[in-house]
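COMPLEX REQUEST
Ligand: SN-glycerol-3-phosphate
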Amino acid sequence: MKFFIDTANLEEITEANALGVLDGVTTNPSLMAKEGISGAENVLNHYKAICGIVDGPISAEVISTDFEGMIREGEVLAALHENIVVKIPMIKDGVKAIRYFSSKGIKTNCTLIFSAGQALLAAKAGATYVSPFIGRLDDISVDGLELIKQIRLIFDNYGYETQILAASVRHAMHIIKCAELGSDVMTGPLSAMLSLLNHPLTDSGLAKFLADHKKVNG
Ligand code: G3P
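STATUS: Structure written out below.
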């Protein structure tokens, strides 16, 4: 399973990349705003900076909600760097835009997926990735992981090459379950990725190893 980091924070991206297990980055307008990135030129420069840190797919989201606007924006984003993936919302014009970009060989990530039907539509339009938001479904007491399972089954039934990018991942259990269910990618904050490191028996075991070593070596 590929690991993407879901942030626009350059320090966190650099830290995750230094771990050596990072495959890509996802951003969204909220994450860009959180970093105080505003104005078209600054936004484009920020994406370029991210592309300079991570050698893998970098999702950059359009702001337009009409077909022409999404095409205009997406073409500018795609021209920034070969690793840019144009992130498009699951709306009617978004589906048309995904089909357009797919026919031009431009990679897309269909975002704000909350149902299997939406994922199927995006796959039929030729999306490179679909992003089901599992954490936000859990937040409203709907099982987000069940959606990953459903989409996996549907894509396998028909051999869709669209990759399942489990998004809105919050913690280690989400990541592990996504891996069990065959999600192609997961994206989450650095904290979720680092939480995979933790086990109390690792900590106590290491402390004992070091203490025993010290007993005989001083
Ligand atoms: O980038 C999309 C998605 O991962 C958002 O996650 O934590 O805001 O629900 P979250």
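REMARKS: The chain has a mean pLDDT of 98. The beta strands are 2-6, 24-26, 58-61, 84-89, 108-113, 129-132, 163-166, 185-188.
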